[in-house]
Amino acid sequence: MTATTIFKQTSNPQHFALSGIVPPLVTPLAARDTLDIEGLQRLIDHVIAGGVAGVFILGSTGEAPSLSYRLRREMIKEVTRRVEGRVPVLVGVTDTAFVESVALAQHAADCGADAAVLTTPYYFPVGQTELTAYVQNLAPLIPLPLMLYNMPGLTKVWFEIETLRRLSTISSIVGVKDSSGDLGYYANLCKLKTVRPDWSILLGPEALLAEAHALGGDGGVCGGANVAPQLFTGCHRALVDGDMDTAEKLSEKIREFQKIYDVGKYASRHIKATKSALSILNICSDLPADPFNRFLEPQRNLVADVLARVGIL
C-alpha cells in the first residue's frame, strides 16, 4: 500500500511537510534496557506496509522518559537503519536537560533521521515567556526540522496559541502535534496556517481523526496505528478523498478499537494495551519499561476480544 504522505527535503534542510498517519512507535523490549530487535523490524515493516506517512519514535507511546540515554540512541540508530528511507523518521528529543535534547537531536541527525519532535519540558513547570525563550534558544541548535508537541496531560504545560504564534517566526519549526484532546484549541492551531501555511498540524487522540480533518488538520499521530495501520490510513485517505461513507465506517471501527484502552485501571494501560495487542499479533514483545508491568492473561484476553470484534485478528 502506498503511504499517504507529502515529504520533501531540498537544498533547504528545514523544508519538511507531512500529512497522513504517523504512528508513535512503541519501543519493543526483550528485557530491561534491551531492544527486541526482531520485533522492532517486524513492527517497522508492519506499519509501513499499512501505508503510514512516517514513524515517530521516542514519544509518549514509545515510553521515552523511562528509557536510558543509551537505549534511546540505540532505538534511533536501529529504526533509521531499518526504515531504509521508506518513510520519514521523526525522533522525540524532549528531556529535562537542555543539553541532552541537543545531544539527542544531533545523534538523530547523524543517524539520518528526518525531523525532531519537542514537547514542553516536564517536572519543573515553565511559564509561557520562559517556554518561548527555551524554544528560541534550542531550535537553532537542533540540526533537523523541528515539530513542536503539545502534551499538557503529561507535561502539565501547554504550548499556548499566542506562544506558537510568536514561535512561528522560527523557520526550522515545521508544525505542531497536539495531544490535548481539546478541539477548540486544535481549531485555533489550524488557523495558524494563515501565518505558516507550510506547517503540518497533526492530532494525537486517534478517535478524533475525522473531527480534526474537518478543522483543517493534516493527519494523526495515532498510537493504534502500531496495531492496525491500515484502519487509520484507510480512514484518513477516505477523509481526504471526501468518501464520507467509508470514513464513517472506519471511524466506527476506530471507536470500537478504543476499547482496548479501557482494559486495566492505571494510566499506563494505554501503553500496556498497545504492546499487548502487538504481542497477540506476534509482532513484538509486550514488555513495558519500568516501572510498569505487562498485562496478565485475563487482560490480554480482553484486548484480544476487541481485536477480534474490529476484525484485526
From TrEMBL:
Alphabetic keyword roster: Lyase, Schiff base
InterPro entries according to UniProt: Aldolase_TIM, DapA-like, Schiff_base-form_aldolases_AS
Superkingdom as given in the UniProt entry: Bacteria
Positions bound to pyruvate: T61, V221
Record-linked PANTHER family: N-ACETYLNEURAMINATE LYASE (PTHR42849:SF1)
GO biological process, one term: N-acetylneuraminate catabolic process
UniProt EC number: 4.1.2.-
Top-level EC class: lyase
Cytoplasm among keywords: no
Family the entry assigns: Belongs to the DapA family.
Pfam families the UniProt entry points to: DHDPS
Keyword hit for Lyase: yes
Active site, UniProt feature: Y149, K177
SMART domains given in the database record: DHDPS (SM01130)
PROSITE patterns named among the record's database cross-references: DHDPS_2
The protein, known as: Putative 2-keto-3-deoxy-galactonate aldolase YagE
One Gene Ontology term, aspect cellular component: cytosol
One annotated GO molecular function: N-acetylneuraminate lyase activity
